[in-house]
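Q: Study each token:
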Amino acid sequence: MDKNIISIDSLSLKEISLIMKLAGKLKRAPFMRKAALANKTLALLFQKPSNRTRISFEVAMTHLGGYTLYLSPEEINMGVREPVKDVACVVSRYVDIIVARVFSHNDILTLARYSSVPVINGLSDLEHPCQALSDLFTIKEKFRSLKKVKLAYVGDGNNVLNSLLMIAAKTGLDISVATPKGYEPAREIFDKAAAAAKKSGSVVTISNDPFTAVRGADVVYTDVWASMGQEADKQQRLLDFNGFQINETLMKSAGADAFIMHCLPAHRGEEITDVVDGKNSIIYDQAENRMHVQKAILLKMLGK
């Protein structure tokens, strides 16, 4: 495995498969490797506050016998109080691995360049690889095989979608995307996903029609329309995303038993209605699986 996990593109199909298998074992037996990372320290270096990313990594490290140090946005103020390079050089002298949650993807790249220990992208404006790995694990739990499974994503062409596109294309999961015009995913990501899909047999499609995207879908996925750092654009986004809400009408175009996924936090009444709390919702499975998958990632990167 590469020293760092910066994007899904940095992981091979074999590495993704190994993470999935190990995460499954760890979910069934959470303390099977309870001393594997004894005397190891994980630094959570965050520019953005977090619920799932922080808790899941902290608990994962505890289950493996390690220690976690949380560095909040106010404490470090990375890139403002001191340069990212200096933070990387100093923090990596103290700890064994760093998880960073940042605004700019360039900060992740700089951390990885100057850190002497592995760096995991806990979220950047370009990708959210840990989320996508956990989502894949959740889908595999429900379907076992990814063959002929269709994932539909409706909403913003953001970091979550970028990572979902790559992991779907690499693993053979079909993915159909609908975004408003002007909110499509990053072109470089789509081009890489399209190339990977040719090898895996995955079908990757993008349109501006949510009903086309979800037609016959086995899983329907959405995310917030305005992420942290985009608050100033929220009112415009509410107008632009009109018609892209996951609701009962849209879900009728999907398979009768289609699951609903959301990486949370969910803004009920905006990108999704109370269908997010219905019997087909697996949002809390997603949230829990962050811990199991990230435990597998930590073991692969630090364990023997």
Summary: The radius of gyration is 19 Å. The mean pLDDT is 96.
